[in-house]
Amino acid sequence: MSVDRSRLHIALQRSGRLSDASKDLLREAGLRIEAGKNSLTARAGNFPADLMFVRDDDIPTFVSDGACEFGIVGQNVLEEFALGQAEPGFERVAELGFGRCSLKIAAPERLPYEGPRTLAGQRIATSYPRLLRRFLQDSGIDAEVVEMSGAVELAPRLEIASYICDLVSTGATLEANGLRAVDTVMESQSVLIRTLRPLDAGRAAIAEQLLSRLQGVLATKESKYIMLNAPSEALKGITDLLPGADAPTILPLHGRPGHFAVHAVCQESVFWETLQKLKDAGASAILVVPIEKMML
Ligand code: ATP
Ligand code: ZN
User: Which of 162, 198, 288, 290 has its CA 20 to 30 A from that of 219?
Assistant: First the structure.
């Protein structure tokens, strides 16, 4: 396949836990993805970008080599890759808030665990040998790392290892295999990465457009637009309470001298507790509305 250098290339997991959310994120950024389920690439119909559907383990390599300018991958896969590289060929752009999981040490129910020292001299099975070795090293523990490419939770039953180090989200898989999580090696979620290879001017401009849209989408997810009315003496207290809002708009209310409307974009979640505090500080007619699009 020849590579079209006038378009951006974005590496996404082809099928698995990150695929749907990765595609959804790009769709929210306005990219129309035109491809059947089984294709390895797809063209964004209305944006100069091509999507490359690959195994998640290959994404850090593709982005570092510059074959793809952007990629979406779990921090666990990314850090494991980075630990094997002399120099990183990618840069982390943003945490994406999905694909959350933890890389945990897990032990069979019958075995004790009293901190990392319990692991000394033991065999531990994992698909993340570099992250596990770093954890052991940081804890000053000498143990044997047994590398497996999958089905790590079977290792204790097969007597390949006593302990395992594997990804956990709910813990249900561990439990089903008679294991329990006992320590955390790393917390993870998916991230957007970009290549450190220099881009020509044309593609650099497209990359900036994409980033600006994605940052807008990510900011929108948490942000709310808040509107309320307040008497002038309450304005200071109220604006101090608004979560993550800088420079709110304050407008005089027609026909109500000394009363103002306060409008602000809040960059953090707005909870019922916050509304109660605003009310107690003198606010009335409080409205919180979602923001559909935002370009910062
Ligand atoms: P591929 O065929 O792309 O190599 P895979 O089997 O390695 O797929 P998945 O199981 O789809 O990958 O997981 C992809 C990523 O999803 C993980 O690397 C991790 O970042 C994240 N993830 C979130 N929750 C979990 C979980 N409970 N178990 C495993 N991975 C999880
Ligand atoms: Zn994988």
Answer: 198
